[in-house]
Structures are given as C-alpha cells and as structure tokens.
Write a structure and sequence with these properties.
With about 250 residues, the protein is α/β, with parallel strands linked by helices. Helix content is about 45%, strand content about 15%. The protein binds 3-methylbut-3-enyl trihydrogen diphosphate (IPE) (2 copies) and magnesium ion (MG).
C-alpha cells in the first residue's frame, strides 16, 4: 500500500506552511558549493507544490527567503535571487496546468527589480486560478510584518478610520501580509532545526508543528505524505478537553 492511501482526504490541512531548510548542509555533505544545494532544493519545491495540489490542499506557503537572509554573503543572496527568477520563468506552466494561483508575502519592495517584476507578472497571470494558492514568503519576517500592520492600523486610528476600541484579532489579521489566508494548520521544518526563525508567528498560534531531519533537497513526495499522516493523528483541541471534541 502506498503511503498516500493512509491519508484521509476529508481531513486535509487547509493550510500547510514549510520552512525549507538544509540546502547548504546538503551540498556540504556532498563536497559541493551551497549554490548546488539551493538549485537541487528547487526540485523539492516543485514536487511539494505538485503533491499538495494533487491532494487537494488549498493553501501552501513556502519560506523561501527571510529578512535575516539578507545578511548572508552577497554572492549567496545573488544566487538565490537568480534561482528565483529562473524558477518563476520555468514553472509558470506547472502553475497554470495545476490551476495554482501565486501569491507572495514579505517586504517585496526590497527585492531586486528584476525579481520583483517577474514575481508580479506571474502573480498577475495566475490570479484567476482557484485550485490552490501557493504563497512564497520572500524577504519575509514575521516581526516586520507585525510592525508594519501596527503602523498601518495606527495611521487609520489617527485618521479616524478605525477607533481603538474596535481593534481586535480580525482587524490585526486584515493588516498582515497573509490577510486572505486561513491560519496555518500544519507547519513543517526540514533539516533537524527545531525553531521558527521569524516565520508566521501570529498565523501558527494553533498550528501542528512537524520537524524532520531530512534536508530540504532530499525532501520528497513520500516525506510530505508522512508529515500529513502524522498531522492527521494529532488531536487538535484548541483549548478544549478531549471529551468535548466527541
Ligand atoms: C534553506 O537552506 C534555504 C534558505 C534559507 C534560503 P539553507 O541555505 O539555510 O541551508 P543550511 O541551513 O545552511 O543547511
Ligand atoms: C529559515 O532558514 C529561512 C528560510 C528557510 C528561508 P535559515 O537557515 O535562514 O534559519 P536559521 O538562521 O538557521 O534559523
Ligand atoms: Mg538554514
């Protein structure tokens, strides 16, 4: 029996988010440059995107580049940006064929012009697709996201558009980059690190966390199935007791 047959299709997570980590270590283990790991990592991206779409997962969010990643050596940042443009160009058909809508979160204006433009072009050309929303977190940091939401809300308060008594969780949600996305149900991190690294802090409040030692370039369809099977074994109580859930 295939692992896929162990997945119950009526209990799929609505929103899966992945911290794709371990490209550098994967390359180092093979005596290669980090760039080689990033390039191989794009194959895992393609596979995960296709697998989620096939299964019927409605939202997949991938952490591709953090605000902190700008502090990496210039050459590595350039390599990552180049790979991003290449992948967007190369995978546009995969997105269209699978009816996937591309979305991006983060401080996108910091991206090199070429990357920003390519990204906006693909977002525009896939905007009518409805099977799955693929969100790329690029130049993304959760604290920056929250700070900019606070700034926007403050301006609206100052201009009497929002009154302070009305500020609640849904107003905060509406001012985050993820405004149109549901909360994360399942957060996966590869490479063995057990930390969040400034990813979707607000949105993972009740997510199930899944850590695997597999390095991102080695992460396959089967590994994704395993994560979903494990997710489906968890009891999500949202503060209630087990008995209340029956
Ligand atoms: C993830 O792999 C890719 C990005 C963060 C862009 P890393 O490049 O972090 O690989 P490791 O963690 O050094 O192995
Ligand atoms: C998190 O990975 C960011 C991405 C996967 C894009 P890092 O490799 O940058 O995280 P830390 O620095 O080890 O926490
Ligand atoms: Mg890393």
């Amino acid at each position: 029996m295939d692992l896929k047959d162990h997945i119950s299709i009526d209990a799929l997570p609505k929103h899966v988010a992945i911290i794709m980590d371990g490209n550098g270590r994967w390359a180092k283990q093979k005596g290669k440059l980090r760039a080689f790991g990033h390039e191989k990592g794009t194959k895992s991206v393609k596979q995960s995107v296709e697998t989620c779409a096939e299964l019927g997962i409605e939202n997949l969010t991938l952490y591709a580049f953090s605000t902190e990643n700008w502090n990496r050596p210039k050459l590595e940042v350039q390599t990552l940006m180049k790979l991003l443009v290449l992948s967007l160009k190369k995978e546009i058909n995969t997105l269209q064929d699978n009816k996937i809508k591309l979305n991006a979160i983060g401080c996108l204006s910091l991206l090199p012009k070429k990357v920003h433009k390519e990204l906006l072009d693909v977002i525009e050309s896939t905007k009518h697709n409805t099977r799955m929303t693929l969100t790329l977190a690029l130049s993304y940091g959760s604290r920056e996201e929250i700070a900019s939401a606070v700034k926007e809300i403050s301006i609206k308060v100052k201009n009497n558009i929002i009154s302070p008594e009305n500020i609640d969780e849904s107003i905060i949600n509406e001012h985050l980059y993820t405004q149109n996305l549901p909360d994360v149900d399942l957060l996966i991190r590869t490479s063995g690190e057990q930390r969040i690294s400034n990813f979707l802090l607000w949105q993972i409040a009740y997510a199930e966390l899944y850590f695997t030692n597999v390095l991102w370039p080695d992460f396959t369809k089967q590994h994704l199935y395993e994560a979903i099977i494990e997710y489906q074994k968890r009891e999500r109580r949202f503060g209630k007791t087990s008995e209340q859930l029956i």
